[in-house]
Amino acid sequence: MRRLRSSTVVLGGMGVLAATITSCGSDPDRRCVDPVTREKLPSYECDSGGSSGSGTARGTYYYGGSVSDGRVSGGSFDKAAVDRGGFGCSGSGGG
Questions:
Q1: How far is the CA of 24 from the CAs of 15, 52, 69, in angstroms?
Q2: Is the distance from CB of 42 to CB of 69 less than 8 angstroms?
Q3: Does pTM top 0.90 for this prediction?
């Protein structure tokens, strides 16, 4: 019984470590939105074709934040402004 408990603790700790390592290298969530209304759009609306086929995209990508009632908030249109961060992650480097 005692051995089982210590194995569970070790395995749980390894899971936390793995999640920490992966979160440091992850990009923030990216959503396609209308830049005026902040309404969430299908991802193809951010491609150069758009739904109208006019060659210009209707939407733009919005990073981080959350979606509520079909609209985004709490993030940014600037990917560099969104700091994903995490346990043991240092600030993002310049480029």
A1: 15, 38, 30
A2: no
A3: no
